[in-house]
Amino acid sequence: MRPRPAFLTVFGSLAAAALAATSAVAAVPSDGPNVAPPVSQAVLATDTDGDSLPDIWETNGYDANGDGVIDVDLKAMGADPKKKDLFVEMDYMAGRLASVAALDRIVQVFAQAPVMNPNGTAGINIHLDAGPVGGTKYNLGGGNEVPYDADLNPAATETTAIKNTHFKPARKAVFHYALFGDSYGGGCSSGNAFAIPNDTFIVTVGPKCNWNATDNTNVGTFIHELGHNLGLRHGGSDHVNYKPNYLSVMNYFFQLGGVPKADGTRYWSYSNVAPAALNETALKESIGLGPNLDTYKTSWKCPDGTSRTSTGTASGRIDWNCDGDTVDTGAADINDDNLTNTLTTQNNWANITFGGGAVGQGANVQSKTAPTELQEMTRDEWIELQHNHK
């Protein structure tokens, strides 16, 4: 978790309203009938579960402009000050919103997160808001169909314009903003989070680029892009992609197909293990990714540009140089970046950053990743990966 920023003392409702317009710090209500007294800095700073949403917001609601009226009733939406919560409003172009079944899977992934809470339970409660089309499960009073635009270009500018039109300003301190669109930037990328960490992302697996937007595609891309909002990177500790030892949907290998498991299922989540680093100059085929990974398989790149998935477990023997045996110790470029480096990894769940962008108590104070580092998987890359898989 990042350090909490110092809070300003707010005097009166006019000052509170001005502050709320530019930051996510809880505004102090003005004095008047049926209005609670000003909230102390200590109370605002209290965040028992560490999700960047102060306890008082999760208990009493969030008053964005200091007028004494609750603008976002977090408790009514299911927030718990002793269990980590994530809120995501989902706006969408016609036909682009993920199915209810896909949204159910996303909720389940976060519910099963190996993250402990002060109330003694594990998991994160993610609250998805699609508006009226979300039915009783996924309607928290936001979520809108927006005008169709086959190409968000420039992506950041057009996404911001749509967000400013359809996303209530009072929600910016509480909700991440997701937009399901068609494509962006004149290309065929699957999505973008624009910065790391952040509060906004897009999922763009629409018909313009002939994406087949299955539930798997939407689930993997949504969790991947939200992962960037939560501070996660393509390579765990860095942006080096296609690492065989990075068992996460943040890895392009596994974003759209899931991490293969030894039992034949797929893992659609962030990594909950951090296997040993792989030195590409001295790979030992007899030990695979190392011990304690018997429930996983993995994928890697071969010298001829094809990719393979292990037939046995990730802890077993792996033919890193693709020569037909698993007895060698030597060099191989197993992520096809034309280098032989040491590939490090990360336990994603142990490194989640809450409060990216304007979400939470410290709006826009975190370091950002340059947009050039957030080039995402394109449809052509995905097709090539499938075509070249052996």
Integer count of domains? 2
DSSP summary, beta strand count: 13
Which H/E pattern describes the elements? HHHEHEHEEEHHEEEEEEEEH
Level of helix content?
10-25%
Strand order of the largest sheet: 2-1-3-5-4
Strand residue percentage: 5-15%
How many distinct helices? 8
How confident overall, as mean pLDDT? 88
Helix/strand-derived class?
Answer: alpha/beta
**Biggest sheet details:** 5 strands, mixed
In whole angstroms, the N-to-C terminal distance is 41 Å
Gyration radius from CA atoms, angstroms: 22 Å
The level-1 CATH class of the largest domain:
Alpha Beta
Kindly report the CATH topology of the largest domain: Collagenase (Catalytic Domain)
Keywords: Signal
Pfam family, one: Reprolysin_3
GO molecular function, one term: metallopeptidase activity
Signal peptide: 1-26
